Amino acid sequence: MLNHTELQLLTDAHVFDDMTDKQIKIYTAAIEVFAEKGYLNASTKEIAAKADVAEGNIFSKFTNKRGLLNAIIEPVAKSIFPETLSSFTDSEPIPKDLSLHEFVDSLVKDRMDFLEDNQDVLKIFISEMVYDDQVRQQYLSKFPDAYWHTINDNLNLLKATHKMVNWDNWEIMQIMWSLIGGMVISFIFFHIQPTDKAVNHAVAALVKALNPRL
Amino acid sequence: MLNHTELQLLTDAHVFDDMTDKQIKIYTAAIEVFAEKGYLNASTKEIAAKADVAEGNIFSKFTNKRGLLNAIIEPVAKSIFPETLSSFTDSEPIPKDLSLHEFVDSLVKDRMDFLEDNQDVLKIFISEMVYDDQVRQQYLSKFPDAYWHTINDNLNLLKATHKMVNWDNWEIMQIMWSLIGGMVISFIFFHIQPTDKAVNHAVAALVKALNPRL
Amino acid sequence: MLNHTELQLLTDAHVFDDMTDKQIKIYTAAIEVFAEKGYLNASTKEIAAKADVAEGNIFSKFTNKRGLLNAIIEPVAKSIFPETLSSFTDSEPIPKDLSLHEFVDSLVKDRMDFLEDNQDVLKIFISEMVYDDQVRQQYLSKFPDAYWHTINDNLNLLKATHKMVNWDNWEIMQIMWSLIGGMVISFIFFHIQPTDKAVNHAVAALVKALNPRL
Amino acid sequence: MLNHTELQLLTDAHVFDDMTDKQIKIYTAAIEVFAEKGYLNASTKEIAAKADVAEGNIFSKFTNKRGLLNAIIEPVAKSIFPETLSSFTDSEPIPKDLSLHEFVDSLVKDRMDFLEDNQDVLKIFISEMVYDDQVRQQYLSKFPDAYWHTINDNLNLLKATHKMVNWDNWEIMQIMWSLIGGMVISFIFFHIQPTDKAVNHAVAALVKALNPRL
DNA sequence: CATGAATGAGATTTCATTCAT
DNA sequence: GATGAATGAAATCTCATTCAT
């Protein structure tokens, strides 16, 4: 069973909004089965059984097994990067005096929360990104535009105010996301819970790594 | 086709030693197909066709489709971590006055070379680690003993001589391997070649991140 | 095609109760093919063809080729021994003054009727008992308890009233079942119909053989 | 491994006479494997392995897997019935004053000895007779001529001297062979050793059953 | 709409037999 | 002759998808 938080988040994202009860049952059952066995090893029969629904429903509601996968992946794909810094952009604009530590700390911890709340779906997303070139292409094309803008602004601001090392934004991003990704993968695939201490050390490491004065 | 370097490495590892010509053709064809489509999406029929060999041949040497996968994965799994610091331990022992920069630089660049030479097989290995819990268990159990010892010694030495921050070795390793992994994944799955500049920045980032005096 | 009587018996045993039309067609086709070629020489493809059904159907109902065999064998296995003397025990209890001739005659003729009605399935059952150790173990363990009790009572009664030779019940049973088995095998495998005269002589032989006064 | 007696008998029957060492190794290995797994479940690879011989030898020496089976079955098929009463016919002619008990006793015990000495080969023979219609036809046609003559003479003699019931010879034979067969099958397939007592009771049963004066 | 029986393409695997060495 | 790698037909089984009821 998906935990309450995970379901709540899906609800918040209005994923369920125009789904019937059966669709929701199929959808949540699929998340569990895909996460446990992987997309390719999961059978529509098993999903239908877990959803307590006739197999045919999957196809009338999601067209395809692949359509079901997409319905699951799409919301995560959208929120994995885009929402990242929304905390800064939407409600309150980026503060001019943003410190490097604040920036890194909020980014890392926000994503740790996201991880905690979306384990299963993230696992499915990562697995398919790794396994399927089509999925890779499909979701790669979605990131840049919206996200790049926001993050570039942030990084440029930090550089301009000499709070961050003057490397390519892409390199900086890779360094930041590598550390986040390392914790995500450790957690999802090797069940190593990121402790507060470890997260703080990762933040400290990033702050030092990106400090321009060293 | 596998590039020359990759084949050379397999030859060095005596992987081909008790294989006939056709078995080698199967083996290399399988690497290509598995890397391109993923293990589950690859069919033995396609592998046999690409190897220009009768399908039955696969099974007389490798028992199973899974046996073929293992034959491919095993050599990488063994060399992905263990050999890592062999440069220090085997020929020349760890120098007492090892600097943090030397340590990080050699570790990172050695693994970048390894990546360059084993793209396809690494891709297969990573994909299966991500996709298959069994593979995860199977290879997880192999790492620790031999590897942990070497790396712990190195980290402890650096800490003792106040050249490295005094965090848990596990945390330090996760930070280092996350950065390496980030570049590996960018390269393998998104075809982003790690430029010398990017690698050097990653090394610099790590050195700063782990510097105890900040 | 299975003859009418054979199908009737299966219907009576509610074998067909939760089967669709196509599944029944598979089941009866399988009996014919297994009986003709033996389980191992029969292919699911041929069974499906004879049933005029897609091959996959076999597996959705019967799981396995072996599952199909079991579905066929089980009903015979249950009725080959257990029901044997039910004529005496169920409707009318064993008469105290049961004569040896009555006992043997009813036993033999009842089994000859059973044979007539279940040729194909008996052939399959016997063939698998002979060919497959697993089947042997599987069905051996099912006989004793229910059956032994009934038959022992009968034999003990006949011995107590000095109507039957005082040998081990097991020996007596072996002698009786050998004669029955001989006719069964002659019929099933060599197409030698047991004539009334031959059956009567067999009964006479048994009665004399087991007569205590000789 | 075949026991000594069984090998001795094959030697006596000159089965090995024009076989090379390798052929003999294949032959005896095949008997073991066929007896254990059945002809269809035995693979030529396993036989070759057990014979410690390259697989190709099987085909150069016995043409076929089937040819190997035939080479094994043929000698038993010939001796299962034909030699039966050779004790009487060859060295010493049938005594005019042959008693029913002598006749039955010698027949039954001779076959019990035969059984003891040829378990594996008999098991193979019976299994294939039951499983394969071709084998059935092939060996059925061989019995009658030689054997019928001898046995008919014996039965007719006993009938003429009023020592045996006046039933069809075929019926008498079926009764005799059923009892023998019952013990053979119990032994071979259910590992129930025929004790002296059980054999004697079977003989007694037959003598009584065929006694004309009851 | 909902159901789940039916479909059949396709996947893995086995194995007797051949034949180059 | 001896070997065992190579063959490829055939077998069992899975499963997304369709569609009659």
TrEMBL record, chains A, B, C, D:
Superkingdom as given in the UniProt entry: Bacteria
Pfam families in alphabetical order: TetR_N
A single GO molecular function term of this UniProt record: DNA binding
Keywords: DNA-binding, Membrane, Transmembrane, Transmembrane helix
Keyword DNA-binding found: yes
HTH tetR-type domain location: 20-80
Protein name, per record: Transcriptional regulator, TetR family
